[in-house]
Every structure is written in structure tokens, then in C-alpha cells.
Amino acid sequence: MENQIITGTRVDCLYRVSTDKQVDHNDNNQADIPMQRKACHAFCEKMGWTIVHEEQEDGVSGHKVRAENRDKLQIIKERAKQGKFDILLVFMFDRIGRIADETPFVVEWFVKNGVRVWSTQEGEQRFDNHTDKLTNYIRFWQADGESEKTSIRTKTALGQLVEDGGLKGGVAPYGYDLVKSGRVNKRKHEVYELALNEAEAAVVRIIFDKYVHEGYGAQRIATYLNKQGYRARTGKMWHHASIRGIVCNLTYTGVLRCGESRSQELPHLQIISPELFEAAQYIRTSRANSAEQERHIPLNTRGNSLLAGNVYCGHCGARLSLTTNGKAYPCKEDPNRVVKRVRYVCYGKTRKQTDCDGQTGYTAHILDGIIDKLVRQIFERMKAIPKSDIVNIRYREKMEERKNLLRSIRADYTKAADELDMLKAEVIKALRGESAFPKDLLGTMVTEAEAKCTELQQQFEAAQAAYDEGEQVLRSLTAQYDDIISWADMYDTASLEAKKMIVNCLIRRVEVYRDYKLHIDFNIDFTQFSLGLDIVEIAA
After folding, report:
1. pLDDT in tens, 159-207
2. pLDDT of res. 2
3. What mean pLDDT is reported for the chain?
4. Are 294 and 508 in contact (CB under 8 A)?
5. b/e map 403-428, b = 16+ CB within 10 Å
6. Number of Cβ atoms within 10 Å of the Cβ of 523
7. Going by C-beta distance under 8 Å and a sequence separation of 6 or more, which residues neighbour residue 359?
8. Whose CA is closest to 363, among 339, 340, 344?
9. 289-327, pLDDT tens digit by residue?
10. I need a surface site. Which of 111, 173, 424, 503 has the fewest CB within 10 A?
């Protein structure tokens, strides 16, 4: 067919929209790509040209995707090299692209390769001389600037929409469905809202639970879900990238987000608590920060070792790394079972990066056994004493003193205020000539009483602040105690992954010395509970 077409009138058309939404409708409530196709077909009929080929790009951003990564544009370029058409026709030149430092040169490439470039709205793009080139470059740059302005206005509108609890559009996040709201927008489009998808929401809860409470990473969660028979919305296997996206999505707390804009908390959309989400973000950033020297969260919870990322050589300060020599040895408890020898090795000494006079390594199950015994000791001692005794024993006497002081100052202030009122009443009597006190004396007495009231008021405020501070400390201790007891209740039956998370919440840093002597820094100050736990310096 192409051979029957008059040379010079063969046309390839390129249609493009930057979002899937635009495939359906344009600003005039018209289907966008059909509109572009209709305009190009009408233009060719008017010009007496024949369309020999058409390419369509759906949801491709002219700002973000460069020419070499656009498959459809590359097809058009390859056809140009083969001389299969004479004219490249687009609805507007920005359909070719909106990258200011690239698009003009793409157009120029077609012209240099014998292809005329036309727009139904803007005519032909020529590069016959330097004036043409400059004019065309300026045109593209101006269009790019207008596009940026439009983008800013759109973002502002979307931000306001989200702050008002509205949906900015697009595909519903996993865990939600789009449902009709019964409303239409100014373009007469159906407005949709988010609604919980209970089946998907249950999977979201599993993801956050594994991530926060058992220390699973994204890849491991994906593997777990796939083994359990869960599938992504598409029906395909879960991928770690999807898991990471879910962990970072604030929407699951019931808060919609667009850029810097946030909606109020929407309870009907909440899948997880804000506290659980924040815990996930803390874990995520802790793992991502490779420069961090000490970790409260293990980098991962794989393997059979209890400590991960927070154990150091006490002699040189280098981090101990977990290694295995690959050999298998008979298990002492079960001769029929073989185990591999796992050790914590001083990285600084093995790499000769430090002048270390300590041991090269420490057997993992011995060191883990010491830590496990210590953790159980802490839990047993704290569970053996009622919360009221543990939490209050250190602060009961101090808080009672603060309460008595507050009560005493309040009584003194009340008495002083009453005396001031009596003196003021006596002043009125003196003005009437009914008081036995001289006016000058009464004035002095009133001034002294006012000063005393002011001083007692200041003392009362200071005593109240001290008492409130003590109450806050007690609330903090109570919450801390509750955390520890919850860990204690689950520790015995917890998976190794969960035990690692518990240990890393309790222990900030373990320093190991020769003969397995340990110095331990805790994230929790156990002296606050007045248990008399001698757990800073221990030995095997």
C-alpha cells in the first residue's frame, strides 16, 4: 500500500498522554487520545495526506521519560531511518516531549533525516536556518515554563483536596477499594472515595506485624506471603518493592497525603495505628542508615544468632560480625543432628584494622546463651514484684514529699490571701473612720501581705511543676514497665525473630571481653525500678 501513496504525503502519527486519567478525558471532557487521533485524521484529510502508521503512548510523562526510554518514539525513529514515511504529525508539539534540553533536538533529528514535523495546532516545525532554530527552541522552553506553572497550580489544588479529606484520584492503594460517592465533579466525572477492603487490609496488618514485631525485611515478608498463598492484587507473586511501598504508605493510618499536604485522621480508613506506623518508619530508617555505629534495631532477623548489629569487641571497639566456617559438627544434645559452628568474630582484628589484644572470636551459642539467661533473669525479677511496688518504690517517698509540700504551700497561700482580704476590708473601714488602725500602718500591712501572697504563689507554681514532673516520670515508668512485661509474657514462646527484636529493644550495646566477660548498655534504665539488678557487668 505504501508504494501506491504519493511520495511526500505519507504520514506517521504519534499520540501521547502523560497519565492514565488523560486517556479517558481531556479538559473539555473529551476522550483525549481519540481526540488527538480525530484531529490528526481531519488534518490529513484537509492536507491531502495519507496516514500509513500510528503509535500511541498511554500514561507516558513528557517531562520525566527521556526519548531513548520511550518505546513508541523509538519505533517512529526507526521507521524514519527506513524511509517509510515523509511527515511526522502530532496534535501539538509537546506530544513529542516536554524536556526542554532534549525535545527540540528530537524534532531537529527528524528534520535532518528527511522527515517534516507538523502539528495540527501549530503548523510545521522548520530548522532551515539559525533563526528557525532559535525560534523553535524558545517556543519549546516557553511551553515548558507554562507546563511547570500548570503543575504548580494542580499540586496546590490537589493539596487542598487532600487536606479536606478528598481523594486526588488514581488507583486505590492496596487495602482499599474505590467506591462511587454519588457525586460528580465540575467536569461531570463520577467522584470516587476510598473504602476498606477487609481481605487486603488483613494482609497489610500481617506485613506491618512481621516488619515491626518480628524484624522481617521486605524480601522476607514477600517470601512469607507467597508461601502462605497470599497474592498481590494483580494475582501475581508478592515483590519486595511492593512491600516497601506499603510500609512507607501513611494512608494506612487513615491519613491522606499529597506532597506536604495532609488530611485529618479518617478513622474509617485506618488499618494500622499511627504508633505502629511510626515504629515501622523508625526501623526502616535505622536499617537504611549504614553509617550508624550503634543500632537499636537489628539489620535483619535471619539466622540463628540472637544478637545482630549491637555487639562489639570490648578490647578494640570494633563490631563483631557473624560468621560460619561451613563445617558441620555433631550436636551434643542430639548426636543424630549436625550443626554448623557459628561465631561472632572481631572485624577489626581479623582485618588487622585495629590493635586488638582480645579474642578473635566468640562462639555464638555461648554468647547468645548468656544474653538469653540475662533477659530471662530481668523478666523473672520484674514479674515477681507487683507493678505498684516496682514503679513506685523509687519515687513513692519523693512524690509524697512533693505532695505534702504542695499541700503546705497551698494552705499557707490560702491563709495569706484571707489575711490580705481582711486587711483590704480594714482599709475600707479606715476610710470611713471606723477602724482602730492608722491608715499608714494599714497601707504598710497591705503591701507586706501582697508581697507574701506573690511569693507563696511563686512557690506554689514551682511545687506544682515539680509534682507534675514526677507524675510524668511515673507515667513513663508505668508505660516502660508495661512494655517489659508484655515482652516477658511473649519471650518464652516467641519466634527467634521476635526474640531478636525484644533483645534489641532492651539492649543498646554489648561489649565482649576475653572469657566472655560482658559490659552491657541498656536502652532502659533498670535502676529506675529499684530492683537492685546487678546486670551491667556479668560473666559466663
Report:
1. 444 444 455 456 889 999 988 877 776 666 677 788 899 999 999 999 9
2. 45
3. 77
4. yes
5. eebbeebeebbeebbebbeebeebbe
6. 13
7. 346, 514
8. 344
9. 544 444 444 444 455 678 867 888 988 888 888 887 656
10. 424
Q: How far is the first Cα of the chain from the last one, in angstroms, to the nearest whole number?
A: 89
How would CATH label the architecture of 2-161? 3-Layer(aba) Sandwich (3.40)
Domain limits, the chain: 2-161, 176-288
CB half-sphere exposure, 540, CA atoms < 13 A: 13
Tell me how far apart the alpha carbons of residues 448 and 218 are, in angstroms, rounded to a whole number.
Answer: 71
In whole angstroms, what separates CA 376 from the centre of its chain?
33
For residues 218 and 244, the answer to whether their CB atoms sit within 8 Å is yes
What is the DSSP annotation of 206-270? Answer: HHHHHHHHS---HHHHHHHHHHTT---TTSSPP-HHHHHHHHT-GGGGT--EETTEEPPP-GGG-
Residues 446-505 have pLDDT tens digits of: 888 888 988 998 998 888 888 888 777 777 777 777 778 888 888 888 877 778 878 887
| CA pair distance 485, 64, nearest whole angstrom | 52
Residues of the chain above pLDDT 90, percent: 18
> DSSP letters along 268-286, please?
GG-SS-HHHHHHHHHHHHH
Q: Which amino acid is at 408?
A: S
DSSP per-residue string spanning 479-518? HHHHHHHHHHHHHTTS-HHHHHHHHHHHEEEEEEEGGGEE
On whether the CB atoms of residues 473 and 455 are closer than 8 A, the answer is no
Which region, left, alpha or beta, applies to residue 303 given φ > 0 means left and ψ of -120 to 50 means alpha? left
Q: Are strands 507-513 and 517-522 parallel, antiparallel or unpaired?
A: antiparallel
Cell 507546563 identifies what position? 147
Domain made up of 176-288: CATH architecture: Alpha-Beta Complex (3.90)
Please state, in angstroms and rounded to a whole number, the distance separating the CA atoms of residues 164 and 158. Answer: 10
> What's the count of helices (H) and strands (E) in the chain, helices before strands?
15, 16
- Residue 454, Cβ neighbours under 10 Å: how many? 11
pLDDT band, residue 522 (cuts 50/70/90): confident
Contact predicate 322/303, CB 8 Å:
yes
Neighbours of 269 (CB within 10 A): 22
Q: Which three cell numbers stand for residue 210?
A: 512481621
* Residues belonging to the chain: 540
115 burial class (0-12, 13-18, 19+ CB within 10 angstroms)? Answer: buried
**DSSP characters over 41-97:** HHHHHHHT-EEEEEEEESS--TTTS-GGG-HHHHHHHHHHHTT--SEEEESSGGGT-
Q: Is the dihedral of CA 240, 245, 250, 254 positive or negative?
A: negative
Question: Residue 519's beta-bridge partner residues?
Answer: 511, 537
